[in-house]
Structure prediction request, 670 residues.
Amino acid sequence: MQTSPVRTADGSASGRQDGSFVTDARDRTGLRDTLSILGVWLLLIIATTVVRPDFLSTQTLLAVTFTMSISGILAVAQALVVISGGLLDLSLPVSLTLSAWATVTALNNDLPTWAAIFIGILSGAAWGALNGLIVVFGKLNPIIVTLAMGFGGLAVLLLLFLSAQIPSDSDLRRFGLGRFLGLPNVFWPMVIVIVVAGLALSFTRWGRRLKAVGGNPQAARTRGISLPKTRFFVFVGAGAVAGLAGLCFAAVNPSFTPASGADFQLNVIAAVILAGISLSGGKGNLLLLLLSVGFLSTIPTSIAFFGLAPGWSLVLQGALLILAVGIDGYRLKRSAR
Amino acid sequence: MTAPALPTVEVSPVSWGRRLIEKFNGPVGSIGVTLVATLVIGLAMAGPMFVSPSNINIVGVSVAVPLIVAVMASFALLAGVVDLSIGSMVGFGAVIFNQLVAIGMNAWLVAAITIVVGVLVGLINALVIVGYGAEPLAVTLGMLTLLRGLSHVIVVNAPPSTLIEPLYDVTQGSIGGFPTLLLIGVGVTLIAAGVVSKTRIGRKIQAVGGDDRAATRAGISASKVRVTALVLSSVGAAIGGILYVGQLGSASNSLGFGLEFQIYAALMIGGYSITRGGVGNPIGGLLGLLVVAGITNILNIQFFDPDYLDVIVAVILLVAVLLDRVRGGDSFE
Prediction:
């Protein structure tokens, strides 16, 4: 309740610019980013449709929304880490696969669905907590910690299992195969996650703290926010969200290997950066994240319709990422002048 | 940690034990200790066979190409920019080299083309990172994806096999009982170590990596140094790709996948930092790679599941960065 007066007092004390001005500028770049991603996305859709009129079909819509669902949830997890100034969590695929494996194992042992879901999300969160503990107590850079935990974790998963199958008669599997409002069922948890996380970031004290820690850790600390606690819970939260992605992953894939989760890594980081969520932390718009996930998820389908080798979609995604960070860096440089 | 702050108080008889500890306090010292520990564990678990010439040859050959790539990439780390695209560049370089040689072009010409491609990739990275001031991690991650994609576009099915005589002599031959490739790798490391610690260029790179503003005020062009470092890193990867073709006789589209993680883990174990420049020495990088290769070898000899390697390397990496932090490296809050 008393956060807002303290915040303004602190803002002026730390010599930052007038708050309203900063927000204004950010909103405008937000709008411009939104329009540019929407524009490029539309351009891609139009170009593909001109070459192949049958691109605009229910099949395409299903394929794109299907691709969006798991990367979208994972992108929210990554975005939370990045916005809070935690740089990057490179071990999210481990959280995802660990959760998927735990869920499937629970189901195979005849545990009820709710228990399996609980176990899945919990194991994702537990992996996040392990990362968070090392980062907080070791005071180590999260990129290095999660890099090590990423390849070490993958190895642990490989020692745990070689391939996992979800029971085909389970409720979770039926959920994974079903559709709601014409779109795959797994698409909707993603929408809910993005909306809830987006609203929470903007309108709750928790969200404001997270942004404050990411934007200016020193100021946040003088305001009485505990940095270690925030960092720790961000990693736990991101792990739990990745665990949810793991549930959806287990639901839609009849079988998977420990390495399956790694395929999402680059795509998810690309989506976060393309959405203008800077690695320096403190800012981020999850609506924009939804758009960038959608855009990136359309690329593989478009490439297939153009009749190009699947490798081209990697080329395009890489080039787009370089372009996006280049433009972002250029803009920051110019505004700093 | 208080010792440097209070030098006068602790002047009187410094025990030799303390002096010994201080010797090992540097990054290269502690990685040296780790290497000795690896050797001892190897001897204990595998017996004298661990240090037999044939086994040392196996380790040496496996470490040589990553070593050359790592030493060249370490210049970028030293200058304060991370180049994540090296693994994909190794793969892409190998793929172009292998494919062009397979269609009958002159191997020397193709090698030159591959190196030029390496320079171009480095320049593109440099343009976006140095020119536009973009985040190196993000840019080179994009380059990693792009180059991997190109390799997949060029090589769809089984790649052709090639045999290039002069290259084969380098990658498979030996001089005085040591694998030629390893000798080249160690030579490159020593030259790089000399450049870093003894020359003006090396000091410039360290200055820019340590504090680019101070370096700029001292009249060093930070952008020029970083562009050079990024180009060196990318060219090193291209050369690594060519050497891999010599070693393997072919280049699949997944060659070099994940190599950047192995290399940076080894470099960080050897005392480099991927989050701040200006620290580390190529010798430390060599020792770091040897530790990883030594552990791999122990696991191979003992028929352990190779997956344990990554778990062990991850733990060593975390301990290494923790040690670096305790020693006065950047702490993250």
